[in-house]
Amino acid sequence: QVQLVESGGGLVQAGGSLRLSCAATGRTFSSYAMGWFRQAPGKDREFVAAINWRGALTHYGDSVKGRFTISRDNAKNTVYLQMNSLKPEDTAVYYCAATGSSWFQVTTRSASYYWGQGTQVTVSS
What we know:
The protein is mainly β.
């Protein structure tokens, strides 16, 4: 099992940038694919991005393609989400997630995840 703690959220103006970090505990971090999800008030949780265990494969939700970048550093047990050109509709609680499911399951949104507690991102217009 893995425990996840997100950081880096905050308030930013539209067009600005933020970088979220997710620190994982556990010796098997490098064996997990990692993902970011978000949930805005009154909306379902939405897939944002995922990265495979080696960092060689990435997958993004349509609403963030070209603006967000996911990366990981297995030596630091950390996954990152660089968010550029932020929009007010990006406002949400962002959750880090880890999965031992296959990459196919990740990309077909059928993976099961361990979850962090979330960090708030607010984008003002």
